[in-house]
Amino acid sequence: MRPRIVIVAVAAALGSVAGCGGDGGGPSVPTPSASQRIAVTSAAFTENGTIPRQYTCDGSDVSPPLAFVGVPADAAELVVVLEDPNAPHGTFTHWLMWGVPARDTRLTAGTAPLGATEGRNSFKKSGYGGPCPPKGAAPHRYVLSVYASDRKLTLAGDASPDDVRRALTGHTLASGTLTGRYGR
Question: Dihedral sign, CA of 34, 40, 46, 48?
Fold first, then answer.
């Protein structure tokens, strides 16, 4: 009787480990190698600094200038995601862009690189939609994440952030973030 219990326990443990791969169909967050980080900076604001009005719904509503250092030489493309985790009804996506050529380590304000696809944001529009927290609320945090993928992502133009994360699962070479704040 004892050997049978051990065999069942080992089989259950092996089954649970096998189910931890990234292709389970549910949303999953890319897990980059801890040794490969991308430094994400902007000439417009510093880490945890205030995002200037021109990059918000109260200004010109254009994407800020960005720079990336540490993109792996073997990266196939970059992915950019801007999210507000402080939104009243859950994380709000302001920008979702993939297909950014890995050699494009500087993005000009208000433009998307040639060949990149700007997906649908939570405003239900393609492209960048700047920070626009509720008036009178405490400033929100806006997390801009950059991922280096080892392959070109094949996604529909209306892909969701979860679709992008699933496509990146197991294919993320490096990542980095830049967090800004904005209140109204």
Answer: negative
For 57, the token pair is 């719904």
Contact 84, 184 (CB under 8 A): no
Neighbour-count burial of 7, counting CB atoms closer than 10 A to its CB (0-12 exposed, 13-18 middle, 19+ buried) = exposed
Contact 22, 28 (CB under 8 A): yes
pLDDT digits (tens, 9 = 90+) for 53-67: 999 999 999 999 999
What is the maximal distance between C-alpha atoms in the chain? 73
Mapped onto helix, strand or coil, the DSSP state of residue 35 is coil
Tell me the DSSP string of 71-140: --TT--EEEEEEEETT-TTS-EEEEEEEEEETT--EE-TT---TT-EE-B-TTSSBS-----PPTTSPPE
Q: Is the dihedral of CA 34, 31, 146, 70 positive or negative?
A: positive
Rounded Cα distance between 12 and 16, Å, is 6
Please report where in the chains the tokens 């094949």 appear, as a residue: 154
- State the pTM of this model: 0.81
In tens, the pLDDT along 82-104 reads 999 999 999 999 999 999 999 99
State the amino acid at position 83 in one-letter form: E
**Can you say how many angstroms the Cα of residue 168 is from the centroid of all Cα atoms in its chain?**
10
Structural domains in the chain, sorted by start: 28-182 (3.90.280.10)
